[in-house]
Amino acid sequence: MDKVITSLQNPLVRQFMLLQEKSRERRKTSLMVIEGTREISLAVKAGYQLTDFLYCPEILPQFQFHEFFRSDKISCGLTEISKEVFNRLAYRKDNGGVIASAKAEQKSLSQIILPDSPLLLVLESVEKPGNLGAILRTADAAGISAIILCDSQTDLFNPNTIRASLGTVFTNQVVTASTDSTVTWLKDNGIRTYAAALTGSVRYDEEDYTSPSAFIMGSEAFGLSEQWLSSADQCVKIPMNGKVDSLNVSTSAAILIFEAMRQRGFTCTSHPHS
Question: Which residues face 237 on adjacent strands?
């Protein structure tokens, strides 16, 4: 192991800062930054390849770190950094003590593994990393089959998304695709689609989601595009009695997903990860 890095001007530290702050750098290098032992462990177990690993012995005791490092079979380079450097890079100051970079693999529709009666979530242009992270946590909790990001305005590997998801960005099947290809793929796989919209003609709890189903959710600001509203098999609405006309997209997704899970007897619909 090299000597401890104490300078914010160190090239490796500067690369981590760029990856944290610039989506353009993440796209150019196909790398992402992962903070925390739980999140890093989930990424490694899901098959993501770590490229660099930074460790702060002032925060995480050596015996705990080496136990974690061995148990997860991490094979990339290991570099010690000072507490000052760690706190410049990390969102959770003085906490965790580990931060890594990894290959950010974008997956496609053809890579989705479907169970017998899938339950999917399609997100169109969800803009806020925190909302996407919260939705990923709900999807993991419910064990839904896959999440499809259509024409996404949010970088799946934005550090804020990874943090907000508590690492469930790595436990879910998440793919990116265009709206056109997703509409075709859903029809080809016999999956009935339910668009969530304020203009929906049917209450969400009046539909049957026990057959192959997909919920379609739109952006926080503009809702769903006309293409999705017209191509969906049914538009459903969540009744609201307050003065504000819409729920947060992550809350709406949770309501729909767990109604479907209730109807399915809370049986997991995801395909087991290898």
Answer: 203
| Rounded Cα–Cα distance for residues 91 and 185 (Å) | 38
Burial per residue of 101-121, b for 16 or more beta-carbon CB atoms within 10 angstroms, e otherwise: bbebeeeebeebebbeebbbb
Confidence at 107, pLDDT banded by 50, 70, 90: very high
Can you state the percent helix, strand and coil of the chain, rounding each to 5?
35, 20, 45
Q: Is 120 helix (H, G, I), strand (E, B) or coil?
A: strand
Residues 6 or more apart whose Cβ sits within 8 Å of residue 93 = 87
Distance CA 207, CA 194 (A): 9
Residues in a beta bridge with 5: 81
Sort 266 into a burial class: Cβ within 10 Å, 0-12 / 13-18 / 19+.
exposed
How far is Cα 235 from Cα 150, in angstroms, rounded to an integer?
18
CB 12 within 8 A of CB 79: yes
Intra-chain end-to-end CA distance of the chain, in Å = 32
Mean pLDDT computed over 92-115: 92
Domains of the chain: 11-103 (3.30.1330.30), 109-263 (3.40.1280.10)
* Interatomic CA distance for residues 102 and 72, integer angstroms: 14
Give the residues across from 147 on adjacent strands.
121, 174
Q: Which one-letter DSSP state was computed for residue 81?
A: B
Q: What is the pLDDT of residues 173-197, one digit of tens each?
A: 999 999 999 999 999 999 999 999 9
Q: Choose among 179, 180, 127, 178: nearest CA to 155.
A: 127
Contacts of 268 (CB under 8 A, 6+ apart): 142, 143
Q: Encoding tokens for residue 139?
A: 């999807």
pLDDT digits (tens, 9 = 90+) for 200-239: 989 999 999 999 999 999 987 788 999 999 999 999 999 9
